[in-house]
Each structure stands twice: as C-alpha cells, then as structure tokens.
Amino acid sequence: MLGFLSMARTKTPANIVGPQIRKRRSDLGLTQEELAARCQLEGFDISRGTLSQIEAQLRCVTDDELLALARVLNVTTDSLFPTEKRPKKSATTKASQRERRG
After folding, report:
1. Domain for residue 88, yes or no?
2. Rg of the chain on CA atoms, in Å
3. CA-to-CA distance for 31 and 77, rounded, in angstroms?
4. More confident site: 73 or 95
5. Could you point out which of 14, 27, 70, 101 has its C-alpha 20 to 30 Å from the C-alpha of 38?
6. What domain range is 57 assigned to?
7. What is the DSSP string of the chain?
8. What angle do CA 55, 61, 92 make, to 5 degrees?
9. In CATH, what number is assigned to the domain containing residue 76?
10. Least confident of 15-19, 38-42, 84-88
11. Which of 1, 17, 3 is nearest to 86 (CA)?
12. What is the pLDDT of residues 43-92, one digit of tens each?
C-alpha cells in the first residue's frame, strides 16, 4: 500500500491558503456548497466536504486546485497566501523587468 500518499491529519496545517480561501468565499457571500457548485461549473470537480477540509487546513491543496480556486474566486494565486508567506519577486525578475523597459 502507498501509505506515503495518504493525507493523514497532523498537528501542523496541511496548507497555508485555507483561511484566505474561506475569507474570500465569505467576502463574496458564498456558502461552501455554492463555491463547490461554481467550481464544478468551471470544470473543477470538488465537493463541499473537500472544500471544508481545505479551508480548515486539514487537506493539502495541489497546484491545479490552487489555480482553479483562484480562478473561481476571481483572485490571483498570490493573494491566497498569507502576507508573510507570499512569494517575493526575485532580484533576477526585477532586473529582467528593468532590462525590458530599458
């Protein structure tokens, strides 16, 4: 059996985006059921129970799921990360932006 693939509950959060997903859903006035239905209309098959586990940080979120949730919530993926955990633009990215302008 592939035990290493199971998503067992641990004391540490399984994801860091759950609270921001819950907040954005709430800001839009959507229930978990309504958000799950919108996701399904967009081709992202997720149940209310799975969404609940993501929001409660009990379930990991794959890259594809993060992209789909951001699209349905009409936000960037970066905005779903806590402020202190958001990826910072690297010096290389900033330098290449200056070169393109330059």
Report:
1. no
2. 16
3. 20
4. 73
5. 14
6. 12-83
7. --GGG-----SS-S-SSHHHHHHHHHHTT--HHHHHHHHHHTT----HHHHHHHHTT-S---HHHHHHHHHHHTS-SGGGS-GGGSPPPPHHHHHHHHHHH-
8. 115
9. 1.10.260.40
10. 84-88
11. 17
12. 999 999 999 999 999 999 999 999 999 999 999 999 999 987 555 665 54
Residue 34 corresponds to which amino acid? E
Instruction: Let me know: does 12 contact 5? Beta carbons within 8 Å.
Output: no
Question: What would the two tokens of residue 52 be?
Answer: 């609940």
**Residues 5-18: what's their mean pLDDT?**
74
73 within a domain of the structure (yes/no): yes
On the 0-12 / 13-18 / 19+ scale of CB atoms within 10 A, 63 is exposed
Distance CA 40, CA 6 (A): 24
Is 99 a member of any domain?
A: no
